[in-house]
Design goal:
It is a single chain. The protein has three helices and five strands. By secondary structure, the protein is of the alpha+beta class. It has a single domain, classed as HIT family, subunit A, CATH 3.30.428.10. A hairpin with a 7-residue loop joins strand 2 and strand 3. The longest helix is centred in the middle third of the chain and has 17 residues. It is globular, with a radius of gyration of 13 Å. It starts with 8 loop residues before the first helix and ends in a 9-residue tail after the last strand. The structure holds guanosine-5'-monophosphate and zinc ion (ZN). Zinc ion binds next to helix 1.
Length: 116
């Protein structure tokens, strides 16, 4: 698979064609605020490379690690010292709606369990 996909929304954000409120960047990853936040802090961390799911990102361990490290940095930057939730909806049944792998960083409020 090529590293970007022209029809993919998040590839277009990586390429700068679609604007995003970028909060952090690293060699392999980009972090920006979710357009429809589900918590006071809600950021998305994505690999620059186009892969559909976090499961497929496991084939690229350096990039998977880079995304998790950037997610932790975003949580620290956002002051989420008392906890945050890292979510990777994987597949349509788990409510993945954008098929470019991403981690949600959610925080700033009490979380409940089990998730919906
Ligand atoms: P998923 O449901 O695939 O786990 O998460 C996709 C996320 O992308 C959703 O939380 C949704 O609000 C967010 N999203 C969809 N379109 C855009 C967009 O154009 N810009 C930004 N910043 N977030 C988006
Ligand atoms: Zn993509």
């Amino acid at each position: 698979m090529s590293e970007t996909s022209p029809d993919c929304l998040f590839c277009r954000i990586v390429g700068g064609d679609v604007p995003a409120d970028v909060v952090a960047e690293s060699e392999h990853s980009l972090a920006f605020r979710d357009i429809e936040p589900q918590a006071p802090t809600h950021c998305l961390v994505i690999p620059r490379r186009h892969v559909a799911t976090v499961g497929e990102l496991a084939d690229h361990p350096d990039e998977l690690t880079d995304a998790v490290v950037l997610a932790a940095a975003v949580a620290a930057q956002e002051g989420l010292d008392d906890g945050y939730r890292l979510v990777a909806n994987t597949g349509a049944r788990a409510h993945q709606t954008v098929f470019h792998a991403h981690l949600h960083v959610l925080g700033g409020r009490d979380m409940t369990w089990p998730p919906g």
